């Protein structure tokens, strides 16, 4: 008799500054759903995937999380919020790890202020998904699953 050990795929979602206020802030841009509700739905949709979640408003804590999971997770989905446009340090952290990273944005950043049109992170990421609301996260998870 053969025993097959089945390991869940592990995907880490990392959200940056102000994304703890989803469902409360700027609903016309970010929608009415808080992230915990969305995350629960995402986990139910992909029961064979262990989806971990981390949010911080602090750049260094985001970098520490990337270092912590970047060699063991099967992929990282990151919405670095405003740090997307300013953080060379987060970009360097992404470039230093082995796990593939997909940058996501809830809004279409290219329809917003000019400073949001440039990502410091994109060159270090596998890809970028923007403008599909919370569904941007699902699209990133599906990409990581289907690799």
Please characterize this protein's 3D structure.
- With about 150 residues, the protein is of the alpha/beta class.
- The protein has a single domain (about 10-145), classed as Dehydroquinase, class II (Rossmann fold), CATH 3.40.50.9100.
- About 30% of the residues lie in helices and about 20% in strands.
- It has helices spanning about 25-30, 35-45, 60-70, 90-95, 135-145; strands at about 10-15, 50-55, 75-80, 100-105, 125-130.
- β3, α4 and β4 form a beta-alpha-beta unit.
- The longest helix has 11 residues, at about 35-45.
- Keywords: Amino-acid biosynthesis, Aromatic amino acid biosynthesis, Lyase.
- It is an enzyme of class 4 (lyase).
- Catalyzes a trans-dehydration via an enolate intermediate.
- It comes from Mucilaginibacter xinganensis.
Q: What keywords describe this structure?
A:
single chain, 147 residues, alpha/beta, Rossmann fold, 5-stranded parallel beta sheet, 5 helices, 31% helix, DHquinase_II_sf, aromatic amino acid biosynthesis
Write the layout of secondary structure elements.
Layout: E1 9-15, H1 27-30, H2 35-45, E2 49-55, H3 59-69, E3 75-79, H4 88-96, E4 101-105, E5 127-130, H5 135-145
Parallel strand pairs: 1-2, 1-3, 3-4, 4-5
Helix pairs in contact: 3-4
Family: Belongs to the type-II 3-dehydroquinase family.
Catalytic activity: 3-dehydroquinate = 3-dehydroshikimate + H2O
Enzyme class: lyase
């Amino acid at each position: 008799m053969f025993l097959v050990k089945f390991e869940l795929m592990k995907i880490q979602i990392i959200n940056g500054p102000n994304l703890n206020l989803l469902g409360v802030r700027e609903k016309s841009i970010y929608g009415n759903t808080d992230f915990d509700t969305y995350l629960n739905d995402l986990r139910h949709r992909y029961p064979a995937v262990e989806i971990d979640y981390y949010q911080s408003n602090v750049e260094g804590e985001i970098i520490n999380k990337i270092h912590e999971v970047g060699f063991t997770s099967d992929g990282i989905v990151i919405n670095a919020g405003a740090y997307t446009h300013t953080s060379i340090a987060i970009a360097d952290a992404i470039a230093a790890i082995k796990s593939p990273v997909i940058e996501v944005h809830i809004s279409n950043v290219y329809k917003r202020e000019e400073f949001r049109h440039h990502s410091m992170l994109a060159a270090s990421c596998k890809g970028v998904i923007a403008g599909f609301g919370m569904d941007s996260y699902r699209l990133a998870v599906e990409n990581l699953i289907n690799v």
